[in-house]
């Protein structure tokens, strides 16, 4: 076990204000792998003051120079990919292949995309007799989740830095180790002192202090809708801007003309990725009644193949939460066709890849985010019924549509109340805007839309 010390504040690792530490526990073996400081209100205040002091110079830094620092950051992340992947595997439990490709690979691409945007975005434009300037919003407070611990930091820090903002990041207490690597990469990339700051700590202490700090201009949060509501309320009381990426209950709509086997197999893979700990996972599979039984059989067979492929859940609490949902689903009338709540291994916080059939739209498992390797299969009568079910939750983050004809799938997707839809297995695009409708959030991440979240406009008339 390694005991890490200090917070990254004003360009250096500084001792924490208090003596308390957070134990980082490996989900695969339930052993403590490290400790990090538990940040206090004083630590958060020091970080915010450093960010505020660094803001004028960084905001005035030419975009080309900000782009150069982001390019250097991308290169640092790429050089440490193996270390990053191993760290995520240890603290999150993600399988090595997933850690390499997604947890370590995607942040490199996202950082690189913002290096390019910083160099090419038009921060000044002419509109009639006005010159409009796109300026940094100021000091950003970012609270990031544990499920994609590095990606979510990069998806906030990179556009903030590209825009000319300074930032304080409070990472999830379950997965703080990769955040420390990111801070080291920022330092080696030559980002000026105070522009990026990192405070590890508990949500009710460090997270709350960051959300309530009067010198934060924008709060960016990714996590549960319940916490997002609280952060939104705090921000509203202080008239602060917010960017919230929250929960999801995304529908995977398989229209009758679709290649059923491919749609089901890809759909199951989507749900099982990252052990189901993905807010945009297609956790509701909607199948026409005439092909429903075949789809359930295919889904059960596909899920069984993931028994030895997926990692554990992040914590005992999360494991118990997911098991509770499975039990509740069965109690409410769902039919268990794969997996179940029983522990598949004697050690580690594992949950079996699970498929629940005969799920109806009013069931708890069809309405609430489970955040584990659990797929719900629902039947629909016709296209209008499928649309009603797809749109019938408080969420609207992502989704998928499958059809033999692409135009048919697009027409259906355009009527879905959700922020991002994959057509016939469309690939992830790190430049496309990501974010939700309804209670799935406010604002967008990634690409140029993610950059504009960290900008405000000023017009001069001549």
From TrEMBL:
Pfam families: Aldedh
Natural source organism: Streptomyces werraensis
InterPro entries: Ald_DH/histidinol_DH, Ald_DH_C, Ald_DH_CS_GLU, Ald_DH_N, Aldehyde_DH_dom
Active-site residues annotated for this sequence: 245
Keyword terms of this UniProt record: Oxidoreductase
Positions of the Aldehyde dehydrogenase domain: 13-459
Organism classification: Bacteria, Bacillati, Actinomycetota, Actinomycetes, Kitasatosporales
Signal sequence residues: none
Entries under CDD domains matching the protein: ALDH_CddD_SSP0762
Transmembrane segments: none
Source taxon at top rank: Bacteria
Family in the record: Belongs to the aldehyde dehydrogenase family.
Descriptive protein name: Aldehyde dehydrogenase family protein
